[in-house]
TrEMBL record:
It comes from Actinomycetospora atypica. This is Molybdopterin oxidoreductase family protein. Keywords: 4Fe-4S, Iron, Iron-sulfur, Metal-binding. InterPro entries: Asp_de-COase-like_dom_sf (IPR009010), MoPterin_dinucl-bd_dom (IPR006657), Mopterin_OxRdtase (IPR006656), Mopterin_OxRdtase_4Fe-4S_dom (IPR006963), Prok_molybdopt-oxidoreductase (IPR050123). The lineage of its organism: Bacteria, Bacillati, Actinomycetota, Actinomycetes, Pseudonocardiales. Residues 1-59 form the 4Fe-4S Mo/W bis-MGD-type domain.
């Protein structure tokens, strides 16, 4: 069988790869190599290179599992029995507590078709408001800021390759050298042209090592830093007055607001020296083509939306968005982080990035679905709010979880685990028996990336095809089929298909006229053109690799400045919890580690969770390199091995969030929510640290 061009199961770069079956005589399995796709040009990181180990993995679930009580072990069941139980569990909760007592928690790794089907399933089959997904924990602050400032949320409004043509790039809270290494080719190509790079990160990351300037702010102070840079831009007359006049609104109020961010005050808040801020703002303003790229480090805060807006304000004042090889962008994390938030699995959203509360949106989508608009529920609550209320009065009592391992990935994870146990009924669809699946009443073994067809929308807004490159093991089913089968058992089967292409064609119609318009994007076009950028409103449209050239997606075509102010983190250090904790990803692992912790090469590279701590702080604690460290916050505790490193601030420790059990970093994190995006404050909380004696 020849190799098949498909895409990586992991991050939003969605590297092109060729998957080729090995002959049985050579031991079977599959080979993988990087394909010459526009984003990765043949490159793959360790995760992509080891991804075929997931196909035919010995831990793979291939039979539905059920049990009558949580105290019992699972037993194998037929698909009919398992799906009958799912339908009965959802129905029982709705009959007893009302429609919104049954819901679904989705994921940013689901294909566009599955994300669409999940949203439709909840609204049409369950007729419930209870749906949200783990992308709320990922992209929601940047998405909220993009909509408010530009009228549209396409995280990266230009192709990735444009990075190579930018003269100056500032990355804030983004570490692509570890999280998406093949993307570094575009940064390297820029440097060969003489481009300069600036990194804002509390850690001296691999990306910062390769940069010209590193700003190392206190976690949670990026907003003050952005306002301070804008203050300096005004002071040194670096603002692009013609651009501000012609293409924006709201500047005067922002100009007045940043007066109070005088440099030495910002230095006191952020810890970034004034002279470094001065150098940074002059570099940003001096170049012809400047990009500001933000990511989770800046956005996963209880003020994440305002922080993203502060960086957008700076970009607008310098006249960047819409200029060639310039602008503001957010670097998505999850594989379908962009598409996952466009098709209706957010609590307040319908396909096409339409809002569920908008009467015109309801009418359009209900028309595509063959319903009366009044049959659609109103918006539900966000991801953490849903998890926080599981099993309580007014909360969800029967929950389906797809493509998410919330016991590891949700903030305040120990509490979330308790809430899951309070449910009347939990069904989890996954490849493996994840920490969340271990708690379920029914576990459904699902097909994975290279075993099925579907589309993803990558970090650039390019819609691509994941093609089937391997046979799914006997006994597993696609989530598309699961949703269609459960809907049939709920008496709504005529509304659903299990065929990806049929679902995608319906998604196109549902998106028509919306912000994320896929109308002109077909499987055939994706195949022929190696992906198509949305918006693409009809078959003759070429797609839109670059946005904002002439106008923004606001009613008057102008971008909006927003007045935003620094405020303290939801939890600042005090006598009891004297240090700051920040969390993030490492090079070898991905998200909750469900896949990467089961991949030998990745586990060999990083076999356990390791907390980074500065030697000065370690000395104060009497902690040796490699010893165990107990971390404790107001929500829970975790134990990890310490790595002493001068790359982290001496008042802050960094813990990766890829592990479960006693190494669960999210047992520590703060669920304080951003009021606009409902993003939890993953990136900073107060922590107490104790060396574990004898380790
Ligand atoms: Fe996969 Fe992302 Fe690595 Fe590319 S960078 S191989 S998409 S994990």
């Amino acid at each position: 069988m020849p190799g098949v061009l498909t895409h990586c199961p992991y991050c939003s770069l969605q590297c092109g790869m060729t998957v080729t079956p090995r002959p049985e005589s050579a031991g079977g399995g599959h080979d993988v190599e990087g394909a010459d796709f526009p984003t990765n040009r043949g490159g793959l990181c360790e995760k992509g290179l080891s991804s075929t180990e997931l196909l035919g993995h010995p831990d793979r679930l291939t039979t539905p599992l059920v049990r009558d009580s949580r105290d019992e072990p699972f037993r194998e069941a037929t698909w009919d029995e398992a799906l009958d139980r799912v339908a009965a569990g959802l129905t029982a909760a709705q009959q007893r507590y009302g429609r919104d007592a049954a819901g679904l928690f989705g994921g940013g790794g689901l294909t566009n078709e599955k994300a669409y089907q999940a949203g439709k399933f909840v609204r049409v089959a369950l007729r419930s408001a209870a749906i949200d997904y783990n992308g709320r924990f990922c992209m929601s602050s940047a998405a909220n800021a993009g909509i408010r400032a530009f009228g549209i949320d396409r995280g990266m409004p230009f192709p990735l390759a444009d990075i190579a043509r930018a003269d100056t790039v500032l990355l804030v809270g983004s570490n692509p050298a570890d999280t998406m290494p093949p993307a570094m080719r575009w940064f390297a190509a820029g440097r060969e042209r003489g481009a300069q790079h600036i990194v804002v990160d509390p850690r001296y990351t691999a990306t910062a090592v390769a940069a010209d300037v590193h700003l190392q702010p206190v976690p949670g102070t990026d907003l003050a830093l952005a306002n301070g840079l804008l203050h300096l831009a005004v002071k040194h007359r670096l603002v692009d007055a013609a651009y501000v006049r012609d293409r924006t609104t709201g500047w005067d109020a922002v100009r007045r607001a940043v007066r109070q961010y005088w440099p030495d005050r910002v230095e006191r808040i952020t810890g970034v020296p004034v002279k470094v801020m001065e150098r940074t703002v002059r570099m940003l303003a001096a170049s012809r083509a400047t990009m500001i790229l933000s990511a989770r480090g800046a956005e996963q805060h209880a003020k994440g939306s305002d922080t993203a807006l502060a960086w957008i304000n700076l970009a607008l004042a310098l006249g960047l968005p819409g200029r060639p090889y310039s602008g503001w962008a957010t670097v998505t994390g999850q594989g379908n982080g962009q598409g996952g938030r466009e098709h209706g699995q957010k609590a307040d959203q319908l396909p096409g990035y339409r809002m569920l509360a908008d009467p015109a949106a309801r009418e359009h989508v209900a028309g595509v679905w063959g319903l009366d608009p009044d049959e659609l529920p109103q918006p539900g609550v966000s991801a953490y709010e849903m998890l926080d209320r599981l099993g309580t009065d007014g909360g969800v009592r029967a929950l389906m979880v797809m493509a998410s391992n919330v016991v590891v990935s949700a903030p305040n994870a120990a509490h979330v685990r308790r809430r899951l146990r309070d449910l009347d009924f939990l069904v989890v669809s996954d490849l493996f028996l994840s920490e969340t699946a271990e708690l379920a009443d029914v576990v459904l073994p699902c097909a994975q990336w290279a075993e099925e067809e579907g589309t993803m929308t990558n970090v650039e807004g390019r819609v691509i095809r994941r093609r089937q490159a391997a046979q799914a093991p006997e006994g597993v089913r696609s989530d598309l089929a699961v949703l269609a089968d459960v809907a049939a058992r709920l008496g709504r089967g005529e509304f659903f298909s299990d065929d990806p292409r049929t679902v995608f064609d319906e998604l196109r119609r549902a998106s028509s006229g919306g912000k994320a318009d896929y109308t002109g994007i077909s499987y055939e076009r994706i195949e022929a053109e190696r992906g198509v950028f949305w918006p693409c409103p009809d078959d003759a449209h070429a797609g839109t690799p670059r946005l904002f050239r002439e106008r923004f997606a606001t009613p008057d075509g102008r971008a909006r400045f927003h007045v935003v102010h620094h405020r303290a983190a939801a939890e600042e250090p005090d006598d009891e919890y004297p240090y700051r904790l920040t969390t993030g990803r490492t090079r070898a692992h991905y998200q909750s580690g469900t896949q990467t912790r089961r991949t030998k090469a990745l586990l060999d590279a990083e076999p356990e969770s390791v907390v980074e701590i500065h030697p000065d702080l370690a000395a104060r604690l009497g902690l040796a390199d490699g010893a165990d460290l107990q971390l404790r916050t107001r929500r829970g505790s975790a134990r990890m091995r310490a790595r002493l490193t001068t790359t982290i601030r001496s008042d802050t420790v960094f813990a990766p969030f890829h592990w479960g059990g006693e190494q669960t970093a999210n047992a520590l994190t703060n669920p304080a929510l951003d009021p606009a995006s409902r993003m939890p404050e993953f990136k900073v909380c107060a922590v107490a640290l104790e060396a574990v004696p004898g380790t």
